[in-house]
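Hi Y.,

Following your request, here is the sequence exactly as I used it, all 76 residues.
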Amino acid sequence: MRDEGAYLIDDLKSMRSLIVPLFFVPLGQLRSEDWFTKSKLSERHKQLLIQCAEYDFYWVDELLDMSFQGKWYHLF
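Below is the corresponding structure, written out as tokens. Let me know if you'd prefer a different format.
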């Protein structure tokens, strides 16, 4: 079963960007709480991480080229 996150990434395929999924990291008073650990990584989480990585690998070369275009160090 696909969730909204997977559909959203599909919708963004034509957008030149990087998608970096983040898990909630508690700070302050919530720091001592047990929130998200590797053992709680569900199959949906794994699929979303893979889908984001595939999306990022698709765009990374073009984004790097754009970032360094016209700079003296683009030859390296």
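The helical segments are 4-11, 43-68.

Thanks again,
Q.
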